[in-house]
Amino acid sequence: MTDFSLPVVVLGLPLLGALFILFVRGDDRVVSKNSRHVALLIALCTFGLSFAALFARRIAPDSHVDWQVGIDALSMIFVLLISFLTVLSVAVVRRHISFCVREFCCLALIAESFMLTAVCAQNAFRFFVFWESAAFPLFLMTAVWGVEKRVYTAYKFCFSDLAGAVCLLPVLLALAERAGAADFGALAAARPENQAWLAAGMLGMLAFKAPLFPFHAWLSDTQAEAPVPTGILLCGVFSKLAFYAYIRLALPAAGTVLAQWAPCLTAWAVFSAFYGALITLKQTEAKKMAGFAHLAQVGFLAAGVFAITPQTLRGVLFLCVAQGLAVSIYLMAAGALTVRFKNAGVRNPTGIMTSLPYLGTAFFLSCLAVLAVPPLMPFTGQFLIFIDIFRQSAGAAFFLLFSVVLLYASFFKLFTRLLFGEPSVTPYPLPDMSWREKVATVFCGAVFAALSVMPQGLFDLAGMAVGKGN
Predict the structure, then answer these.
(1) N or C: which terminal CB in the chain sees fewer CB atoms within 10 Å?
(2) Residue 11 burial by CB count (10 A; 0-12/13-18/19+): exposed, middle or buried?
(3) Is the pTM of this model over 0.70?
(4) 79 and 29, same structural domain?
């Protein structure tokens, strides 16, 4: 029987770290400092072990164990993404969380453990339970540590996630009843005769959780109201698991119907991308822009999974990682700017390049990453999707391209006002990037640049996942 000690350690380490943090004692300053350090250490160790699992080639789970976790190629992509972005989330806690730091770090590690367990579960119901369980700590992280409308925004996210769960659960129950088992392999082989309502349920799950137009109302508000560490986990990782579920479940079980619906579904995805880019053009707040830009990127991802070709599915998996990294780096830079100018009492800052050259440069580069400027890795994923969409429908490809143009225009307005305008008048000089922020920026930039220049390893993993998923 295959030895699963390494995957089990990867899944259990964040939960053990969260329990350990609860026993940290001392005054508030010491507790906050030690909690941050322990959480960051645990997150780094989890990412290191995830990387070790990749090189150990532990991607052949044994399907004969009832309570069983394992890491195959599709899971590995999301394990690496979850563990790496948790490191970034915990790393920025110091700047954005000012009270109950221990509790926040504990919730972040619990959310990581639940999401890791979800993508490594070989049983569909365990995947469902742990994925939905991960929404609870994210709900608390928004409702308690968010800003003005944090409770309303948290409930909006919660009910949207619940609607997606209501769409998904009947599909799992029907497939399990037909297959006589709940593991993913049995569900993929079930292939019921009436696939239409199964496909509709999976599409509902994707629409609410990814999200797609018109079910996206929670996304921009959550980005604006939630603290940056929560936004990184929510939009960088949690929402991406909708595409994991779709590739893992919908394509094998209802691929025939989805292929028949492909033209209409692609049109829906393209309109969602176009709408997100169009609304971004009207935004002025940096963090809220991330939500609508994310909606446009989700439209690209949905167009890829609706096309149902090996190339677009590889592009989707690659773009999930690329867009998760890009939006996380953008939120880190935008959040650092927001904290500085909010403390200075400036509502509409301008001329950041003059007053804060290092932070302004980091924010500018993060915007380029979100915009998928060539040859950065989001562009590579988008290009793979765009080529197949163009082969299927030139009109759909045109609107996808036009959505990219609108995103460029919206961020050009942001550059002109925020970065290159006349410097804002502040009552005292604002601090530029600290050494911690510089280290985090260089580290993230190096990872992002390496994957942009040398994407072959991730492409190979995505190719293995597509073969497994289809």
Answers:
(1) N
(2) buried
(3) yes
(4) yes
